[in-house]
């Protein structure tokens, strides 16, 4: 799955990451297996907002796994029109203002 950073300047391949986490400054950070390699994906005004975005990333990742399952051939067979039109496999980091808690 790909993640587009909040500032729109980075595309991160989640398959290459060791973890995606929230640091003490409410930054969502992707870390790589290479020592000290990381990417700042987005910054939020509260830990609650940052954790909500992490939940959204997990939801998107799980949905992507479901769509890739050989049991399901067409997304429209599974989901209503709104969901079927989503970009599966790509998560765009929301702005702080887009996250309601």
Key descriptive features of the protein:
single chain, 101 residues, alpha+beta, 3-stranded mixed β-sheet, 30% helix, 3 helices, 6 strands
In short:
Helices cover 30% and strands 24% of the residues. The model has no long low-confidence stretch (mean pLDDT 84). It has one domain.
Shape: globular
The topology string of helices and strands comes to EEEEEHHHE
- Total number of domains: 1
Low-confidence stretches: none
Largest sheet, spatial ordering of strands: 2-1-6
Descriptive overview:
This protein is an alpha+beta fold. It has one domain (2-93). Helices cover 30% and strands 24% of the residues. The chain has 3 helices and 6 strands, in the order βββββαααβ. It has helices at 47-68, 75-78, 81-84, and strands at residues 2-4, 11-13, 19-22, 27-31, 38-43, 90-92. The strands form 2 sheets. A 3-stranded mixed β-sheet has the order 2-1-6, with helices on one face. Strand 4 (27-31) and strand 5 (38-43) form a beta hairpin. The radius of gyration is 14 Å and the shape is globular. The mean pLDDT is 84.
